[in-house]
Structure formats: structure tokens, C-alpha cells
Design a protein that fits this description.
This protein folds into 4 domains: 8-109, Rieske Iron-sulfur Protein, CATH 2.102.10; 123-234 and 367-436, 3-Layer(bba) Sandwich (FAD/NAD(P)-binding domain), CATH 3.50.50; 248-364, FAD/NAD(P)-binding domain; 460-534, Enolase-like, domain 1 (2-Layer Sandwich), CATH 3.30.390. The radius of gyration is 24 Å and the shape is globular. Helix 1 (131-142) packs parallel to helix 6 and helix 7 crosses helix 9. A 6-stranded antiparallel sheet has the order 1-10-9-4-3-2, with no helix packed on it. With 536 residues, it is of the alpha+beta class. 17% of the residues lie in helices and 32% in strands. It binds flavin-adenine dinucleotide (FAD) and FE2/S2 (inorganic) cluster. Residues 127-133, 152-155, 162-163, 165-166, 199-200, 230-233, 251-252, 277, 369, 372, 398-399, 413-416, 418, 445-447 line the site of flavin-adenine dinucleotide.
């Protein structure tokens, strides 16, 4: 628990069915979670270590405790981390059996520390300090890797939570300190040689060797037993005129977010792009309340068009408009205009109109940073095997990897996918087979706008012709997506707002190969019951 309060709580065994779980909120807002299998009970800190959700409000499916917010998953008997976006397992407490009841003393934590005594004479080099690079290093250390770990990154900061940049950070609700992954002293606490502001300029995969160049241009070579490349993605700059002007921004790093934050005060902001980044930036700047106006420009009349249906898109547009965002739909940007000082003054659109603007934020997609790996044998991403291996001891992961998951081989730009890759790579390096393979994992994504989280599980060719339940306008819906229109086609993705358990249940069915067909959903399939029955 985050604070030092110690609780001694007595819980009746009869409150919890076998195969179930229940959480108990304490007066100081801490939570105790109890799981039960037959006569075996386990007690945990019931706040998800990712962002503090009450795990008791999630679902228990088989041996998995699944978080309601971002589907972090934990083993129900010992709290081991099974699935990110959480990055560590649950704190477990000792239990005293009192016959019909149990007593939990939160001061009696079960020590889960592992000795870092595996592979002590090896060296792992990780290129990239984003989600995938961080997770690899962190997981290696937490599962006993005792070799040397060098993490090299161009960033001037230790690994941080990138998704929060366009959410809490830009909205001014969270500071830099709280974005650092694993806390301020993560690298030294975990004996990781973290090398900031260094660029890997060349990789020789056959020799597992890299060339590092520092800011002064000095270069150095290093050779590894395991080489992990996780260089992420960079914003795409669209081809219209004016993108180089003073006042044009992209958002990938904490510095980018800080620059946008500093610059947006009293400014007329135009956001180009209606994907999740564009929509999150609009929401965060609106919540920060400093911009003079916010306009989002989009080619089509839909937002997040490759993720949600037109109905859900309309509900999101309505929400943004209610908060004060203006949309300029159905037009391309022709040019970003400047004044005599070379500063942004407006945006000319293909319909002949011009929007007044002091700053422009480009949310126009990203491209994978695959330039260091000439082995890229697909136009979009590094082809790797089911262990994310490019060749013996060389791994490519995160946004650059065209890797397998339950839905097939694809490159996905999601935070959880990057973390899954780190988890699986660490297990591959340690040669451990007790970790689910990538082929058993499904993609999951979330976006937060005005404090509401829209979540998406799986991967579908299109969000159109889906089946919708609930009311997107009331921010309470679940929508199932299919790759074709057949009645017997199983749903391959779903998105939801406010229907946490249903989305978890769908994710679990998808993961186990039992996602419902269109016909089953039409017939009134009880998705939560099915997920629990099938996982028993
Ligand atoms: C603002 C923002 C919000 C997002 N929100 C969400 C969200 O809500 N949900 C979601 O699922 N996904 C979200 N994403 C996407 C998610 O953050 C990415 O999918 C994820 O960060 C990919 O992780 P990665 O480790 O592959 O790459 P990155 O996190 O991009 O890290 C790459 C690292 O490599 C370093 N690097 C690159 N080249 C070199 C080199 N030559 N030498 C040394 N270092 C190098 C970079 O400096 C960086 O540290 C968001 C992305 C952004 C930018
Ligand atoms: S709060 Fe549990 S995974 Fe995010």
C-alpha cells in the first residue's frame, strides 16, 4: 500500500465463492483483495499497481485477476504479473486461518524479492528507453537476471510513461516526477547502466555489436550477448507547406509535451489530425484551460475513424464540442501560413477557407524508426519470430516490430503491446517457458478524453458493420467489430466506454479463441458468464 497505515482485517470465508475474488475498501482508501480456490485463500493489495484501480471491480477468469481499467492481469494465487500494462505483480499479505474467517495483517507482506543470480556473466544491451526497452530491463531484473544491462537512449530523461504525455501531463494534472517509470532512481536501484543522450548510429546484428555516438560526436563500440532494439516511432510530417515554421509542433517526447504546454497559453491552437493523439491533445489542452481556442482539422467527418464506428465517433465529437472544441471537417490542409516574423499565423484549407492560428500541432501519425536494422524485410516493420528475435540473440520490439499476436502478424503502435514485447523478450533471454507466448496475447489500447477512458481490445479490419449495445452519447456502450459480415464470423475486436467487465470478458474469450460470433451476439450471448464458464 502506498501509505504506511497497517490494517488487521477479518474476513468471512463464506463471502467469497471458490474461483472468485472480493475486494475490501479500508477507511484510508486502501484496498485488500482476497482470492479463493476451494479452500485456498490469498490476500493482496487490491489497488492495481498501474494506476490504482480496484481489482475487485475487474473480473476473475480462471487463474487470472484482470484489472477493470487497462486489463493488467495477475496470477490469483501469488499475484505474479501475467499481463501489462501493470509492470509488476501484486503485493501479497500473509493470512491467518481462523476457521470460518481469515485475518489479514497488511504489515505481514510476503517477500517476493528474487536473487539476481541468473546468467551473471552475460551482457544485455537495450537500444531505446521507451516502453519496450524499459519493460525488458525491468522484467529481466525482476525475474533474476544477474548479468550486465546497458540501456542506451537518445532521451535526456530516464524512461517515462509516454501515454500520459497527451493526457494528465498536458492537462497540467501530473508532473514529470510522477511520469517516471519505476520511480526516480529506477536505474540505480536495479543496477542498470542507463546511458542518456546517446545515439546508436549503427548496429551490426551478426556480431551483436553497436556503435554509440554521443552529443560531442565521440563514438564507441559495444558488443552484447543479447541485443534488444526498441527504437520506437517518430511523428510523420505531412507534405504540405509550412511545417517547419516557428509555432508548429509534434508530440512524441516529454520535451515536446512541455513545449506545447508552455506555448499554448492564450493561443489559437489548430490540431491537424483526428486520430487518438489529435483528440487527446484537444481534450488535454481544453482541460488545461489556457488556450484561446482549439480547432481540430480532419479530412473526413469522423474521429478515430479506424478504431470506432461513425456512431461512436459522433458521440466523441459531441463531447468535444460541448467542451468548446471546434472542428473543421472535410478539408485538407493546403498550407500553414506565417506572418512577417516567420511565425504561424493561420492554416489554409483545400475548401478555400483559412483558420486563424498561433500554433499548429500535427497529429498526423508516426513511422517506425527502423533505420538501424537493414534486415527489415517488410515495408512496415521488422519481421521477428515468436520470441521477437531477428536472429540469434538479437531482438526487435515495440513500435518497430512486425510481430505475432493472437490476431496474426502485424505492427501495432500500442503501449501495452510494447510492454508485452518487453515481458516476452525478458523471458526469451532467460530461456523461461512459464510466460505466455506472444501468440497467446491480444492487443489492447485505451485513450482518455475529459477523464473518460475508451478502451479497445483485439484488432479488426474495420469498425463499420459492428454490433453496438448501450449509448455512446451517454458514454456507456460496448461495440463488437468483425473482419467480414458473415453471421458465423467471430468478433475480432471490441471497444467500450463504461462497460469494463464486458470488455474484459470479451478480451478473455478472444484470448482463448472463443470470441462470440455475430449470430451468438444477436441471440443474446451473456459475455461475462461465458468468459467465466470457459475459463473455469
Ligand atoms: C503522446 C502519446 C500518447 C500515447 N498514448 C497511448 C495510449 O493511450 N495507449 C496506447 O496504447 N498507446 C499510446 N501511445 C503509443 C505508445 O506510447 C507507443 O506505442 C509506445 O511508446 C512504443 O514503445 P517503444 O518502446 O516501441 O517506443 P518509444 O516509446 O517511442 O521509445 C523509443 C525509444 O528509443 C529511443 N531511440 C530511438 N532511436 C534511437 C537511437 N538510434 N539511439 C538511441 N536511442 C534511440 C528513443 O529516444 C526512445 O527512448 C502514445 C504515444 C504518444 C506519443
Ligand atoms: S489501473 Fe490496472 S492496468 Fe491500469
Amino acid at each position: 500500500m502506498s501509505n504506511a497505515t497497517i490494517h488487521t482485517v477479518t474476513i468471512s470465508k463464506a463471502d467469497i465463492p471458490s474461483g472468485g475474488m472480493k475486494s475490501y475498501k479500508q477507511d484510508d482508501d486502501s484496498i485488500i483483495l482476497i482470492t479463493r480456490d476451494e479452500d485456498e485463500f490469498s490476500a493482496f493489495d487490491g489497488k492495481c499497481p498501474h494506476a490504482g484501480a480496484d481489482l475487485g471491480a475487474g473480473l476473475r477468469c480462471g487463474n487470472r485477476v484482470i484489472c477493470p481499467w487497462h486489463h493488467g492481469s495477475f496470477d490469483s494465487s501469488d499475484g505474479t504479473l501475467l499481463e501489462p500494462v501493470a509492470m509488476r505483480g501484486l503485493t501479497q499479505y500473509e493470512l491467518t486461518d481462523e476457521g470460518d474467517s481469515l485475518t489479514v495483517n497488511t504489515a505481514a507482506k510476503i517477500d517476493k524479492r528474487v536473487a539476481n543470480d541468473k546468467m551473471t556473466d552475460t551482457h544485455t544491451i537495450i537500444v531505446g528507453g521507451g516502453g519496450a526497452g524499459f519493460m525488458t530491463a525491468n522484467q529481466l531484473r525482476h525475474t533474476g537476471y544477474g548479468g550486465k544491462i546497458t540501456l542506451i537512449t537518445q532521451d535526456d530523461k530516464a524512461p517515462y510513461n509516454r501515454p500520459l504525455l497527451s493526457k494528465m501531463f498536458l492537462a497540467g494534472k501530473m508532473d514529470e516526477k510522477h511520469l517516471m517509470l519505476g520511480g526516480a532512481d529506477w536505474a540505480s536501484n536495479n543496477n542498470i547502466d542507463l546511458r542518456l543522450q546517446q545515439t546508436v548510429s549503427e548496429i551490426l546484428p551478426n556480431e551483436r555489436r553497436i556503435v554509440i555516438t554521443d552529443e560531442e560526436g565521440n563514438s564507441e563500440q559495444q558488443t552484447a550477448d543479447f541485443l534488444v532494439v526498441a527504437t520506437g516511432a517518430a511523428p510523420k510530417i505531412p507534405p504540405f507547406k509550412g511545417t517547419e515554421l516557428n509555432g508548429v509542433y509534434t508530440l512524441r517526447s516529454m520535451d515536446d509535451a512541455q513545449d506545447i504546454k508552455n506555448a499554448s497559453d492564450s493561443k489559437h491552437v489548430v490540431i491537424v489530425g483526428t486520430g487518438f493523439i489529435g483528440m487527446e491533445v484537444a481534450s488535454a489542452l481544453m482541460e488545461a484551460g489556457k488556450a484561446a481556442s482549439i480547432t481540430v482539422v480532419g479530412r473526413s467527418r469522423r474521429v478515430m475513424a479506424n478504431i470506432v464506428s461513425e456512431t461512436v465517433s459522433n458521440a466523441l465529437i459531441k463531447l468535444h464540442k460541448k467542451k468548446g472544441v471546434t472542428f473543421a471537417f472535410g478539408a485538407d490542409v493546403n498550407e500553414i501560413n506565417s506572418n512577417e516574423n516567420g511565425k504561424v499565423s493561420g492554416v489554409s484549407l483545400s475548401d478555400g477557407s483559412t483558420l486563424a492560428a498561433d500554433m499548429v500541432i500535427l497529429g498526423t501519425g508516426v513511422a517506425p524508426r527502423t533505420e538501424l536494422l537493414n534486415e527489415v524485410n517488410a515495408p512496415d516493420g521488422v519481421q521477428v519470430d515468436e520470441h521477437l528475435q531477428l536472429r540469434d540473440g538479437v531482438y526487435a520490439l515495440g513500435d518497430i516490430a512486425k510481430a505475432t499476436n493472437k490476431m496474426g502478424r502485424m505492427r501495432i503502435e500500442h503501449w501495452r503491446v510494447a510492454l508485452q514485447h518487453g515481458l516476452v523478450t525478458a523471458a526469451a533471454i532467460l530461456n523461461e517457458d512459464n510466460v505466455d507466448s506472444l501468440a497467446e496475447r491480444i492487443p489492447f489500447f485505451w485513450t482518455a478524453q475529459y477523464g473518460k477512458s475508451l478502451r479497445y481490445s483485439g484488432h479488426a479490419a474495420t469498425p463499420d458493420s459492428g454490433i453496438l449495445f448501450g449509448s455512446p452519447d451517454n458514454l456507456d456502450y460496448i461495440e463488437y467489430y468483425f473482419d467480414d459480415t458473415g453471421e458465423d464470423t467471430r468478433a475480432s475486436a471490441a471497444s467500450s466506454l463504461g462497460r469494463d467487465k464486458e470488455l474484459i470478458a470479451f478480451s478473455e474469450l478472444l484470448r482463448s479463441g472463443h470470441a462470440p460470433t455475430r449470430a451468438q451476439i444477436h441471440a443474446g450471448f451473456d459475455i461475462i458468464e461465458q468468459a467465466q464458464v470457459l475459463s473455469r
